[in-house]
Design goal:
Pfam families: DUF2112. InterPro entries: Methan_mark_5 (IPR012356). The chain is α/β, with parallel strands linked by helices and 148 residues long. It has a single domain, classed as 3-Layer(aba) Sandwich (Rossmann fold). It has a four-stranded parallel beta sheet, sandwiched between helices. The longest helix has 17 residues.
């Protein structure tokens, strides 16, 4: 299958974004794909963490040593995806407190910064709160993906 563009998806656990990106012929770059490689890799012997000492060192490329290790660990996996991306879709305005921990929130701030700094086309959308907003949300994503 011919892939038109590699599209980084944030938040990383959005299966809807993953599906939409694939439907338009692009390759979704998402954290679950990276985690699945590690879960299936017999070389990594530390499940459920699946983070190697090398990952922690790689995380230092994206965040200082003073940054909490959970943030650096996430960035060690997410940072390379951002670097490979030709475009990105970032959804903000998710106000549900059960949608991740404080480490996730700090990581989200870093990720948004790294995506903006990358210099690639970025579609930033607010999380929809109604059916009409959800329809507009999908239309904007479709238009963005078609323009790549």
């Amino acid at each position: 299958m011919l892939v038109l563009a590699r599209v980084f998806i944030h938040p990383p656990n959005s299966l809807i974004l993953h599906d939409l990106v694939e439907r338009f012929g692009h390759e979704p770059l998402s954290l679950p794909k990276e985690i699945s490689k590690r879960v299936r890799d017999p070389e990594i012997d530390s499940p459920p963490m699946n983070v190697t000492p090398q990952d922690a060192k790689r995380g230092l490329k994206y965040a200082a040593v003073e940054v909490p290790s959970g943030v650096r660990g996430r960035l060690a996996l997410i940072g390379p995806l951002i670097e490979k991306a030709d475009a990105a879709i970032v959804v903000t305005g998710i106000e549900d407190f059960s949608f991740g921990c404080l480490g996730c929130d700090r990581t989200n701030e870093f990720v948004t910064y790294l995506v903006r700094r990358q210099g690639i086309p970025v579609l930033e959308l607010e999380y929809p709160k109604s059916e009409e907003e959800a329809k507009a949300f999908v239309r904007e994503i479709r238009d963005f993906l078609e323009s790549l």
